[in-house]
Fold these 4 entries.
Entry 1:
Amino acid sequence: MTYPIFLSPFIINPSIPIRWYGFMYIVGIVCSLFILKYAEKKKWMEFHYIKNKKGEKEGGPIDMVFYTALIGISGARLGYFLLYDPLAFLTPWEVLGIYFNNGIKFSGFSGMSIHGGIAGGILGLIIFAKKYNYKYYDVLDISTLLISCSIFFGRIGNFLNAELYGRLTDSIFGMRFPLYEMVGGYEKWIALLPALRPYTEPRHPSQLYEAFLEGIVSIAILYVLTKHKDKFRPGTRTWVWFILYGTFRTIVETVRELSEWTIGALTSGMIYSIIMVVLGIVMLIYIYSKKEAVKDKK
């Protein structure tokens, strides 16, 4: 199976360098706003708006998504270097995508860590909850749908960019991905005769595996839990999501291309994800072992 020729890393064309992956951040943000509006309508999340000095409403879905996205994206960028390339902090301008090679060059934010993004997103939600006087778990629980939705679009963006594909395989799922950079970029690659365009050997389309498991399957499970949230204690969806994401990511790591450090057969992504699973299990046990804990009747 060969990567579809009609797909391109660029939404319009290379002369307008807007790539799918970056655009998917915007799609994820818009999707998150729609989910929160729907959740408010279904009374899965009750927002208590306040008015600022200008008389404008604050503390609603827009502010919640703003804090989550801003600090989450920052966490994803910083997390990439902290978790995978800490020596980069010796040249901190590179963290900002700035390089001094024959002049100043901005390379964009290539290098984002989903685990760093998760940590940043949670921090953003906590700040939002603290500022606008929400219960932490009310905010964190509903955000599991937002995060899963954003991960889905992010992985689709990776696929459309023909990046982060998996390991070599001879299975029926194997796909030959285009090697744009081998010939100097997409424009030069597409200008070649079809027979001369370089491709990888068949590899797992691991981006699609993650989009399905971490996105669609997780959203389906969390939707059911959210719909029946009164049957569960606050925090249940948060830690169930930790277990879901950690488990699915660990599974997909077995076919993802090795790109960072490993410890034996364990990849760095596996280790961080296993920690998430263990933390999720421990916290669920803690939540349900507390005698004073009661079901959220809101």
Entry 2:
Amino acid sequence: MKLSKKALTLILALVIAVGALTVGLFAASNSDRATVKLAADKTEVAPGGTVTFTVKITTDFYASTVGIPVYYDASKFTLSSASALIDGAVTVDSSSSEYTRLFANSGLSQEKYGAVGFVYVARKDAALSKYSDTAVLRFALTAKADVSGSSYVFCNPKSLKKSASPEGMLYFGKNSSGTAVTDSLAEVVENVTLSGTTVSVNISATAPYISKGDSVEIDEINRLLSIVPSSPSVGSLSGYFTVKNGSFLSSGNGTGDTVTVKDGKGAVYSEYTLIVKGDVNGDGQCTIEDYSAVKLNIAYGTEPDGNAYFSQSADFNSDTAVDAFDMFYIDKTMNGIN
């Protein structure tokens, strides 16, 4: 979820402010527990390839504040994207003025490590949740083109916010009920378990890698593989991309079909949902039916039944809006005008 820089600064200021407050904020019961998990969609990647990570949390209390920094070797990976998966939360990366705070108490050098952070602070009267293995953060790291070998992506127990180290950015705040009572940090829960939060990723030139042209876009966060068709009928997907050091299978060539990437031994390596730009009904073609469906959507907000990916396929030019420009491109494609 994207928030303004002003909103992000305010949220983080509320978190950091606890460092200047009394130890009473750390009065949560020892019986209150939180667990953090980190998982990767793959543990081997080719140079230039991308690994997607998901952070999940479990709490036995109503969480009004959550902060989770994750670290990686900056000499081997770059952060390509990050998304907070619950309403009201934000992500923090190196483009944020608050980025250095992710390293508070961590003992890690910013020259050697990169970080991505998840921050949630409930606003007054917001409904709160007890989380059960809930995904809250998803981010993608891309291996640099000239590197190889194993590298770790991890949460750091030294970052845990405690009464003795109140500036830590790994924290959970407890609320006594299911409704937030204030725009501030509540009781801090110090009983936090990091479960499987160190993931080893091997960067290897023999790992599968999708080789694609400009007409193909891969969204690793949402597991979408989008293509811009070169003709009214998509035809074979191998005309748009290939898999080095492996192969791929597809359940079809229309929007909503599944593309399965396999390694050299035939094992499943990754999966994506196929999005064909302009193919809103999922038949693998760009026709007057698709054009009409987009026209109706623009005029009346209607969407055809059975297409969970209408907005992605209708947004032909990928500008995040379905409008007359998309109708223009669909019209060109269905008439064979490139």
Entry 3:
Amino acid sequence: MILGRRGTGKTKLMEALAPLLAPREKLVIVSPIVTLKRRMPYLPWYEIHVSNKAYIEKLFRGWLNDGVQRFVLADEADELTAANAAGTAGGFVAQSVYDYINYGREQGLGIALSSRRPSNIAKDITSNANLVLVGPTVDPYALDYYSSWMQDPTDPDRDYRATCRLLKDHVFMVWSPIGNQKFLGYVTVDISTMELRECSEKEALGAERAGGARDTDPTTTTDTSGMAGPSKEGSSTGRGASSAGSSSPTGAGPPTANGT
């Protein structure tokens, strides 16, 4: 999951992460806007809107049932998982989205979600994510949303929400809400190569902002292995334990992607 305000580099980060998540032929985009599709024109794009729940239900149910291993890049993911959506299963816009996220890993399915409105994301998503990459923000609603899981027992006195306010654009903190070590370090995207790389705390915050803060150990590698795709040991989004329903959706299969 990638969270951060507008203009902080979420789309570039998603583009850089994509090759680490799955082979190109397994990647698809779902989003209400065309931004990610413009950066990755070679991928199928399915335009989704929270107002069209029947379409979303059919799309994800088809993916659960067609036997094809697939990795979804979901931009503006609150269209799927808004906590205040009049959907099902605690805020998911459709039951099939809930099933895909919680049980899809058993079928080799994965999903990465990005949102600039983290406080709108159903908390069940974040609390079960392998990795959450958090960009800069001063939004009090976002910081309040982070407070329930942005705590690291190895450094219990540190206020990581304050770090969110100091991050440079295009720099993200890496968190593992379900891991023993919660805070894993900082990453950024090398714009010249569009590759993901780790960075120190001074680089992430700037020397003046970092001040007396503890530097990230330069010998420690930020572990992004959890983003490498779904497996029986864990998915990129949740900890499902069983397969989703087996009945086929109405019609011949998932709707056709835009731009393909």
Entry 4:
Amino acid sequence: MNTQIIDRAMMHDMTINEGGSALPRYLVLMDKLIQLVAFLSRPDDAGGDIAAVITDFIKEYGSLGEEARSCPQTEAVNAADLCPDAGLMGGSLTAANLVRQKTRPRPQKKPVVPYPRSRSMDPKGILTSGKLAPVLCQKIKSLLVKARKEGLNILVLEGYRSLERQKMLYQSKAGVTRAAAGQSLHNYGLAADVVFYDSQDRPSWSEGHNWQRLGEIGKELGLVWGGDFKSISDKAHFEYHPGMTLREVKKTYRSKGMAALWQKVGCG
């Protein structure tokens, strides 16, 4: 290689390429910087030792910021033009900053939280169906509101039950009811079942819930609580028929109809 080329390169801060041509050092630095930026832009899982590559680069070419300041030809070259993230590093593309820039924690995406299902006190619209005695509706509403205020996460799950449904449940032997068709106050709109929500927003009859307090609130409102039944404890069950036995309820219903029965109960 011509020694004059080498001397001239050393005098003017130039670098000799493989072909023996003298190139301004700032062009070589820019080329290497672009290569380095391309490397840093790769996905994190692309492989390679990031710190080692950057360290080798700095060892060979020195701090890019120092090189740029020592070379007049690079005054118009802004590292931020080549690497948008350079501004985040204070404009100093040192090994430590480049490693920090590449390996800094990425912002964690917030987990997608499903829109919370409404824990409605009456998801089936039982209290607005018109199939329960108005006085019972009002008392169940009061029960729900007061229990919720005390931290009992409850809902009304069952209200009026047709004779056909009562018969089906009774014959299923699933343990839902022991009353045959016509033998339950649900069949006359005078009973409702109130249960708890579990952690997954499903109706729950778990013994871990505070059924005792729920029953106490119901009784404070004048309701009969199934948890006090002697034959079978039905803690979700509440009914209202002051001064009337089941036999009297059935008689009034058969002779005068549902509306007359509800009126009699409401006046009781």
